[in-house]
Amino acid sequence: MNAAKRQEIFRRLKEDNPEPTTELVYATPFELLIAVILSAQATDVGVNKATARLFPVANTPEAIYALGVEGLSEYIKTIGLYNSKAKNIIETCRILIEKHGGQVPDNREDLEALPGVGRKTANVVLNTAFRQPTMAVDTHIFRVSNRTGIAPGKNVLEVEKKLLKFVPKEYLLDAHHWLILHGRYVCQARKPRCGSCRIEDLCEYKHKTSDD
Fold first, then answer.
1. Predicted TM-score of the model (pTM)
2. How many CA atoms lie within 13 A of 94 on its CB side?
3. With the CA atoms of 120, 175, 13 and 45 taken in that order, what torsion angle do they form, in degrees rounded to the nearest 10?
4. 172 contacts 130 by C-beta, under 8 angstroms
């Protein structure tokens, strides 16, 4: 795919959604961190239901740490893998309190040192909470990048690096959100909704579908 196509793709995505953001509900970097840890192999809708119960009761490292694993589990047991997530979150809270003054660090090294935080989670927090131009490649972004030809790659890291290289600079900060939303609602896994797609004429996917 050439640079002019990519430029037009992101121009249209921005035109349709000028200020995209995560569908996770959060008010602080810490709330976002917890929500993203919970979102692994879970839907944003499911996470939002759990955090709507949790955050009014505990939304700081100190308050969640005070709940303990069992106490936290009661709030998040509707989410898959909740036991291991509760253990990771409690340990993460301990580290934030002891090493970071209760604040979420704004750099990849410290974020990835937290239990339950991998590269993708760190990228989401850095981009969404701290407005750094990172690219959190999830299944939606991986699929869209490969299917459209925007940034094809064999694995998540390869796609991430290509996106950082190929996405026009003026769109880089929000590109992660546009691509996730596009993959979630239009360029879907089982059958892409090509008939409803704003970038169908620019996309290099060879097996276009109708919306029937």
1. 0.85
2. 10
3. 30
4. no
Average of pLDDT values for 26-52? Answer: 94
In this predicted structure, what is the pLDDT of residue 212?
58
Query: Is 14 an active-site residue?
Result: no
Instruction: Catalytic residue, from 16, 120, 169, 201: name it.
Output: 120
- 212 in catalytic set: no
What digits encode the pLDDT tens for the residues 61-114? Answer: 999 999 999 999 999 999 988 899 999 999 999 999 999 999 999 999 999 999
Report which DSSP code applies to 151: S
Pick from 197, 174, 202, 201: nearest CA to 187: 197
Which residues lie below 8 Å from residue 59, measured CB to CB, with a gap of 6+? 27, 28, 30, 31
The burial of 212, by beta-carbon neighbours within 10 Å (0-12 exposed, 13-18 middle, 19 or more buried), is given as exposed
Share of the chain above pLDDT 90, in %: 87
Q: Of 138, 154, 191, 211, which one is the catalytic site residue? A: 138
Record the tokens describing residue 133, joined without a space.
């131009």
